[in-house]
Amino acid sequence: MPEVIRVKALGRHLLKDPFLNKGTAFTAEERRAFHIEGRLPPRIETLEEQVERQYEQFSSCKTNLEKYVYLRELQDYNRILYYSLVKHHLEEMLPIVYTPTVGEAIQEFSHIYREPRGLVVTESNYRDLDDILSTYSGTTKLAVVTDAEGILGIGDQGFGGIAICIGKLTLYSLAAGIRPIETLPVLFDFGTNNKKLLEDPFYLGVRQPRTRGAKYYEMIDAFVTAFKKRFPEAMVQWEDFSKSTAFDVLERYRDTIPSFNDDIQGTGAMALGGLLAATDHGRKLADQVFLVSGAGAGGIGVASQIMYGLMHVGLTEEQAKERIYVLDSRGLILSDREGLEPYKLPFAHDREKLVGWSYATENPNMMDTIRNAKVTALMGLSGQGGSFNERVIEAVMENTPNPIVFALSNPTDLTEVLPHDALCWSDGGATVATGSPFAPVEWKGKVYEIGQGNNTFVFPGIGWGVIASGARKINQEMMTAAAIALSTQVTIARIAQGAVFPPISDLEHVTTVVARAVAEAAFETGVATHSKEQIEAGLAKHNWTPIYPIFVPDND
């Protein structure tokens, strides 16, 4: 049943409010009561009719970027219509509002800019954040926050980075049922080192090199303090920070405010979920040897979650790390490397323990590692398109007839291997997953579904579970619970087709399962502030769907 809400806005003010505007769906009674009679077409449409009309217009757009702009304009005009349209066509529109098209939109954001969204924190306003946040909705429960330095695989994007926050929050509302008005996209615009943006006359962001060091953290401290004061029960998702700051920001604030980094922890939980599904029938997680290509936030996050997954099935931390090999641009990460970044150190191997290894360069490269370590699973998070080439796949095949190949880098042109190639080179033996969506592949008469390893399967459920449980922090047990929950949603039939992730069409259900698992883990580990009864109510309370409420005048 539609909810009934009291509304004070009248006339054009009502039509200009995207949270209230119904467009042609305003009833005759509402048009008279709110003084909008004569401002709209005479025909009164249902939401379903509006969706059909908007889909026709969306379909007429010639490029994916045009489709993105169209949807953003609709979102700024009528929130409920926007969410209803995307929900009805989720599989088609998810690659538009999220990866891969959002990457192109971010790069062009100043050129396609339409309406203001969210909060932009700058060096000139950070001291006033308490007053600034007082003008935002007091019901805010969730913020997605970025400094836009490590956007997808395209790096520093300055002001355009707020688009990734907008896209993520769209999925929170669609999948987790969190009301759009309860969400806040936040951009830390502390400058950019992207020369192209600095030279672009239309660039809308702060036109200066990035602020670093103590001043950088002073500004983030100010945001966290003001945000926690204004919204004491809200949580933060850190998004697309560079590898040089992502780990520091996560550690600095994880005990101050309920928060997690989606690139580190979300990517890790997603990848572990896929690995658990891939090894659930006939293979064991603990029997695999993992090569993680890429040692940024995503790569280290995946390595960490694999470690916790191996510990969950009975290995010690030391035993787990012995089965995980992380490579960066200089090769295998070894503990004696000069200038080794602290966040890489937990997965650095001791050179003296590489007993019997044969390698010609200072650090073993990918081929050396595959052959010497007997790697059975490739995890691609390097952003190096095509790096899992035929030689690499064939080398893994020497260790197992059924390698696991996760090419998780985004956008599409950065994927480490095309699914067709991986299946061809492994003669159909590989279990393949990708970060971007790919069509099914036919090989020797069999059609293989390609599971998309998308963080969308975990982060909305994590956020919903945190909010429902009132968790005062987000711990590792909650992340592992999210991964396990995801793995249970991949059917045996789908695994038989080659896919180790659910279809995007199951997103809402998967999110519900993940949210419950996260909330239960929060309760069991003592970080929840809500009772079991309150958690159950919270899991139901936020089940928002995009339908029009009934408006009655608020004459008070």
Termini Cα gap: 25 Å
Please tally the helical runs, counting DSSP H or I stretches of 4 or more residues.
Answer: 24
- Quaternary structure classification: single chain
CATH architecture type of the domain at 98-257: 3-Layer(aba) Sandwich
How large is the share of residues in beta strands? 5-15%
* The CATH class of the domain at 98-257: Alpha Beta
The strand line-up of the biggest sheet is 9-8-7-10-11-12-15
How many strand elements? 16
> Ranges with pLDDT <50 over ≥5 residues?
none
Radius of gyration (Å):
24 Å
* Class by alpha and beta content: alpha/beta
Please tell me what the overall shape is: globular
Helix content, binned percent: 40-55%
User: Would you identify the CATH H-level superfamily of the domain at 98-257?
Assistant: Malic enzyme, N-terminal domain
Largest sheet: 7 strands, mixed
Mean pLDDT over all positions = 96
CATH topology of the domain at 98-257: Rossmann fold
SSE arrangement:
Blueprint: E1 4-7, H1 11-15, H2 28-33, H3 47-59, H4 64-77, H5 79-88, H6 90-97, H7 101-107, H8 109-112, E2 119-121, H9 129-133, E3 142-146, H10 162-176, E4 183-188, H11 195-198, H12 213-230, E5 235-238, H13 243-253, E6 259-261, H14 262-278, E7 290-293, H15 297-312, H16 317-321, E8 324-328, E9 331-332, H17 366-373, E10 377-380, H18 390-397, E11 404-407, H19 419-425, E12 431-434, E13 441-443, E14 446-448, E15 451-452, H20 459-469, H21 476-487, H22 492-496, H23 507-524, H24 532-541, E16 550-553
Parallel strand pairs: 1-16, 2-4, 3-4, 3-5, 5-6, 7-8, 7-10, 10-11, 11-12, 12-15
Antiparallel strand pairs: 8-9, 13-14
